[in-house]
């Protein structure tokens, strides 16, 4: 977000962060390279690109602001309000993406044992905070320099980012050295399950065009590592 009478260093930082946001949006989209571009879980990634583009647009106007009530200042408030609303929808979309793709097993699901749950909870709350902040400064631009509500959103976004990193490291098995191999209760070779009760690895793929025509559902395929112990019992470990 801008501040009136920004110096050149601050302008460069804000513009740089907006570009980093766009790069981040691209990487999030690229992470789903094994999914169709029409998959519904791609919707929040497209929204994220739109949001990043709006912030690049708004920061490009920062050098033109002069007073709290100037034309460019008010237009920037409008653009950033729109961006914050889109970000809120994107966060709800990421919750949908998580629900449709997360591994159905111990430690992953509707529980705060799963760092993904903490991550999207904090970022969604942060998005709500930013919508509230953007609406306030849009309605009352004279309060812009004194309104620090956005700082709470920044803190929540930072916490969410930390937990997303934590979740990504878990998914890549970085915590193999922990007692439970970082699997949150699913220690490799310690859980005995029957083959017909193996956990689900996600919901069927849904395409954005499915609302226009009837399509056969495709079940998401995931691989599991199966070993046999001395008693020929099936031992499954999840990664």
From the N-terminal CA to the C-terminal CA, the straight-line distance is: 39 Å
Order of helices and strands: HHHHHEE
Query: Helical amount among residues, as a percent range?
Result: 40-55%
Task: Compute the average pLDDT.
Answer: 79
Structural class: mainly alpha
Q: How are the strands of the biggest sheet laid out side by side?
A: 1-2
Q: Largest sheet, if any?
A: 2 strands, antiparallel
Beta-strand share of residues: under 5%
Give the overall form: globular
Radius of gyration: 22 Å
Q: Count helical runs.
A: 5
Question: How many β strands by DSSP?
Answer: 2
Low-confidence stretches: 184-196, 218-239
Transmembrane segments: 12-32, 79-96, 117-136, 148-167
Keywords: Membrane, Transmembrane, Transmembrane helix
Notable characteristics:
239 residues; mainly alpha; two-stranded antiparallel ribbon; 5 helices; 2 strands; globular; disordered C terminus; transmembrane helix; membrane; transmembrane
Explain what this protein looks like in three dimensions.
The protein is 50% helix and 3% strand. The chain is mainly α and 239 residues long. It has a domain at 8-171. Strands 1-2 form a two-stranded antiparallel sheet. The protein starts with 7 loop residues before the first helix and ends with a strand. 24% of the residues are buried. The model is unreliable at 184-196 and 218-239 (pLDDT under 50). The chain crosses the membrane at residues 12-32, 79-96, 117-136, 148-167. Keywords: Membrane, Transmembrane, Transmembrane helix.
